[in-house]
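Morning F.,

Quick status update on the modeling queue. The single chain you submitted on Monday has been processed. Sequence for confirmation:
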Amino acid sequence: MERLPKLILFLGVFLWPLASATNAKIKSVFVFGDSQFDPGNNKYIKNCTIQANFRPYGSSFFHYPTGRFTDGRTVADFIAQFIGIKFQKPYQEVYRHLAKDPRKGIPPDGLNFASAGSGLLRDTNKDTGVTPIQVQLQQFQALITRKHLHKKQIEKSLFFLVSGANDVFSYFLLPGASKMTQRVYVSALLKEVTRFTSKIYKYGGRRIVLFSMGPIGCIPGRVLISGASTNRCIDKMDSMTRYYNTGLKRFVSNIPKMYHGATGVYAAVYDTSKKFRDNPKLYGFANVTHACCGGGPLNGMLQCGLEDYKMCLNPNEYFFWDYFHPSERTYGLISKAFWAGGEKEIWPMNLKTLVRNITLSFP
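Structure tokens below.
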């Protein structure tokens, strides 16, 4: 009987947002970014070396590997459930179906273009076969050009972008590879966000959600960086992350002025994650430093699923699933904060408000 209250609490966390999702005016989401949202695009890309299409990835929810870099659902998946629509399929999967039968069209619930390992800069992990943001946008544009995707669906969709973490991690992993100072480098990242937003607006997107970087300096995989401590976050990386996030939020505040009729939303991944990591017991975490699955110090030296990896008994008690990514439970808590949370978590409105109550006029 002791387990029952915990079960009720657990179900409440994830089912409560669904109770009021039926009135959503938005029924479609287009997702761009990196491994935080990748639903399995990379597994379709020949010679791409950044993969999660093996066990135990996906083990907590799907019970098989989907290509997602966690043990279950991502934030994009949870938000789709909160809205009341199906998970967005990987673009690479749908593209292959369209090549065989163009009449099939695009799923009415949207599409996910995110590619694990990609960055805002084209050169980030370019030798690994990932799809950078610029190419993801080209893929989206091609669907419009070929009339697979129509204005009516675009205008009634959400657009998600989560990217930049791989750019920042690479900056520290390969010191000297970039000749830019940290501030110039961040400015280059923000310019790419502006270009992305301008393109989406040009194609008809009007509800754009930009996700901040999370606590990259604190991930278990930081031990891959020479001289990194296992006892504390990498301060310089953390500082660079916060500098980027400040610029991103400033840009979001200017979206209504820069793009007539558009609404921009800033999802504070860093601040929301910090709240959970600073109060682990309150949110049911037993460990917020080590990866549940991996190997070496902090379980951060070896990718989950590779030879000699180790896995924890209960992923729900861990903030991090593998060396870079949160667990499904962490993603679920973050998603709930973005769906129905306050301005410290998502600004200037939460996603529940965005999909239900905003009426936009189009030029």
